[in-house]
Every structure is written in C-alpha cells, then in structure tokens.
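Supplementary Methods. Inverse-folding protocol.

Structures were first reduced to a discrete structure-token string of length 168. This string, shown here, constituted the complete conditioning input.
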C-alpha cells in the first residue's frame, strides 16, 4: 500500500514538473501543423521572400519547414535552389515565437531568482528535534477486534514527548 501511495505522489509531482514541457511540445506541434496548412493556401504575395546562399541557408535552417532569421521563426514552403542561391517564401510564425519565449521565460525565471531564502524558513529547517521512543502497538494473536468504538484505556494513556519544544 505504501508503495502505491509513493508511486501516486511521485507521479503527481512529476506531472506537475513536466506539465509546462508537455504543454510546450503539444502546442508547438499544433502551431506547426496550422502554419504548414496556412503556407500551402497563401499566395506568394502574402509571403515574405528571402534569398540565401547555401551556407547561410544551412545556418538559419531549423528543420525542413522552418528557419530562424534574426531571432524570429519563419515557416516556409518548398525552398527553390537556383544558381547556388536558395529562395524561400516564408511567413513569420508569431505564435511559435511567443511559445518559445514562454518556455524560455519559465526556464530562466528559476535560474535568475537571486532572492534570499526567508529567515523564518531557514530557522524552521534548522530546528533540532529529538524523535520520541518508537511506539509499538501490541496486537495479540488470535481473534482480531474491530476498532469501531474507542476504548477508554487507549485514550487515557499519555505518551511523553522526549523532544524539546520548538523555539522561535
């Protein structure tokens, strides 16, 4: 039972930590599909024209349908290769730029956090506690009793705590 609870808690924690990344991957796939569909339907007049040498094209190329020019993502159709030059008809992908900015902001926000840990939290974690003697519950062998109602002798017992009280 403890193993199942541990697995559930760990799974919830990992899902929380990986949520932004999963959102990023799924949303990026959706944006790429939308832009590929849109690029195919737009006339050449609705697209920006870029001309590169082969070396420049290899440097700005992200994948078969995307290039990154001056820090901006562009989606393009089939490139045209003529005389050592590559001509692209592309459209700025603002949605993907915003998404990349969002994930970059998430990753950088934790790295740039220079605020000190609150002193109350440091004091709390530095408190020294002595653990009490282990309490062992004796269960007699034989017939098991239902613990539906509380028994007075269990509630009347006091167990001394052998740790100092927390100090502020």
């Amino acid at each position: 039972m403890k193993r199942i609870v541990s697995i559930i808690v760990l799974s919830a924690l990992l899902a929380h930590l990986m949520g932004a990344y999963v959102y990023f991957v799924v949303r990026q796939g959706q944006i790429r599909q939308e832009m590929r569909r849109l690029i195919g339907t737009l006339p050449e007049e609705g697209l920006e024209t870029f001309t590169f040498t082969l070396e420049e094209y290899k440097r700005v190329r992200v994948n078969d349908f995307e290039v990154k020019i001056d820090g901006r993502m562009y989606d393009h159709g089939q490139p045209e290769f003529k005389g050592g030059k590559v001509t692209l008809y592309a459209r700025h992908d603002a949605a993907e730029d915003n998404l990349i900015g969002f994930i970059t902001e998430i990753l950088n926000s934790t790295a740039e956090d220079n605020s000190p840990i609150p002193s109350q939290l440091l004091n709390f974690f530095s408190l020294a506690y002595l653990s009490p003697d282990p309490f062992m519950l004796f269960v007699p062998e034989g017939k098991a009793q239902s613990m539906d109602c509380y028994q007075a002798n269990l509630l009347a017992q006091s167990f001394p705590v052998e740790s100092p009280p927390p100090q502020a």
